[in-house]
Amino acid sequence: MSRRSILVLCGGASALVLAAAACQSWTVATPAARAFVGRHLARAYGLTFEAQGPTTLALLPAPRLRFQHVRVLNGGRLLAESRSLEVQLGLGALLTGQAEAAALTLAGTRLVLPEDDDRWAGPLARLTARLADGARPLRRLSVTEGRITAGESGSDRLGDLTLSVSWPRAGAGLDLSGRFSWRGVPTHVVFAAARPLDLAMGTPSPVRATIAWPSGSLDLDGTGSWQGGPALAGEGRFTTRALSETLAWVGARAPLAPALGRVTLEGRFEARPDTLAMPSLRLVLADTVLDGAGAATLGPDGRLALSGTLAAERLDLSALLPGRAEAGSADAPLALAPWTGGDLDLRVSAAAARIGPLQAEDVAAGLLVRAGAVEASLGRATLQGGTVKGRAVLVDAGSAGLEAKLQGTADRVDLGSLLTDLGLARPILGRVQGSLALDAAGADLAEMTRRVGGRVSVTVDDGEIAGVALAETPGAEPALRRGGRLPFERAQVTLGLSAGLGEITQGQIRTASSALTLRGRVVLPEQRFAAEVEPSARDPLRSAEGRPARYELAGPWGAPRLRLLSPPRPASPALPAAASAYAP
């Protein structure tokens, strides 16, 4: 073997030995290594670096130092501590004797982020200035088993933190991905394209972010800025299968919380701390799709204030009605507080709408929710061929329960079809018009029914009454009988209510040739009524000296019974005109 070959073999073997040695971790003096890194942090950021335990050094594939039990402080105030810290050093700076970190890997880390504390302000300002002057950023950051606390001895804000950050250069976008546990809920986050240096210097930067948790997700794509506080504008999409659960998780309280389930919200937005404006949005509530505009404000107590103007082709409001299991009995206590956890000012229009079994068309409505009060207004709706309007107000009366006020009007509504939709018997048919004004108070539905008062006026045209017939004999007063149907031209009833009892102050049913007068009472708590009915001929030339028969129509609303109270009294025989003056 030639001398040259021997030298080549020896050189190669030496290189392999040196490479293997460089890849190994070597224990070095901790004070010296700590001072090497600490000088850079103190000079560049004004920070104090502490480390305890053994320190190791490896040169390949990149020079790196590994410290144990590390603490970083600013003026004696703790910023971060970590069980293990590995610092990958920039080779260029290392050759000049500088400790410039290219990448950090931390395990078992705690970051201290107090709410009212400026301990991070100085280091971040120095970092921004260095980056603006052309310094290279930390290119990679990896955190495992991390947590963020509200103070040096405070509780965890975030736990189970795993984080990976890539930032190749100061002018490039930052990519972040990770997961953590917040308030006991595991959460994943992906953050991309943002330019931190632009944000720090007040220049807009693109932002793309995705946040996901077990019951929902949030996707954002827009432009962010940090002038006078953080701001973000762009396109977003929020979805959750349980909105009330998600809002409770983030510490917010919303109006109508018991009715909020699966929700999707997407559209253009403009956001600042505690405020959100959406000039164009699409809201999907269960199977209802609404388009329009809206805004939201979050109060310091976590109370959401929502406002909006929305329109839908089909609107299903059945979720606002309590289910059978929720409604319970009439003695179940009524509580308004779960529905008024936030504020709401909403205007809604729909081509078709459903609430429970009722279906309406051309609906224009409003809903106003404030602390302890709910007001619903119906500007106009077409219901069974007629028009209805109304307003309902519920107010929390404290220990007394609720106070309720209801006002409404109806015009030319098909009463039979309406009763069919409600699943009720159809004792009366026709086109109904009328008005009502009611008020009540109580701790439960039964008490409110016992205390309801107000006035109801109803007119039904061209209808018929089931279960009652009118026997008309020429020359005699008409008589009522059970069974059959009673057609009528117009039926009018005016009802005055007080303490759950209704007095029929005016009641009349007009047929083609007769008229029936009604007087009686309605007992709302028992859902019964009793009315005295007097049929009489509408012929003004017929003698009025006889008294018609009187009947009682009484019983449950759906199945009243008719009985005769007194038979008719015939009129006296007519006297000659000459003898009438001597009649007693």
Keywords:
584 residues, mainly beta, single chain, 30-stranded mixed β-sheet, disordered C terminus
Short summary:
With 584 residues, this protein is mainly beta.
Describe this structure as you would to a colleague:
The protein is mainly beta and 584 residues long. It is 15% helix and 55% strand. The chain has 9 helices and 30 strands. It has a 30-stranded mixed beta sheet that branches. Strand 21 and strand 22 form a beta hairpin. The radius of gyration is 41 Å and the shape is rod-shaped. Residues 4-24, 323-327 and 574-584 have low confidence and may be disordered.
Describe the secondary structure blueprint for this structure.
Blueprint: H1 3-23, E1 26-28, H2 30-45, E2 48-51, E3 55-58, E4 64-74, E5 77-89, H3 91-95, E6 101-112, H4 121-132, E7 140-149, E8 156-166, E9 174-182, E10 185-194, H5 196-200, E11 205-213, E12 216-225, E13 231-240, H6 243-250, E14 263-272, E15 275-285, E16 288-298, E17 304-316, H7 324-327, E18 343-355, E19 358-370, E20 373-383, E21 386-396, E22 402-414, H8 415-421, E23 428-442, H9 445-451, E24 453-471, E25 479-498, E26 501-510, E27 514-523, E28 528-537, E29 550-556, E30 561-566
Parallel strand pairs: 6-7, 17-18
Antiparallel strand pairs: 1-3, 2-4, 3-4, 4-5, 5-6, 7-8, 8-9, 9-10, 10-11, 11-12, 12-13, 13-14, 14-15, 15-16, 16-17, 18-19, 19-20, 20-21, 21-22, 22-23, 23-24, 24-25, 25-26, 26-27, 27-28, 28-29, 29-30
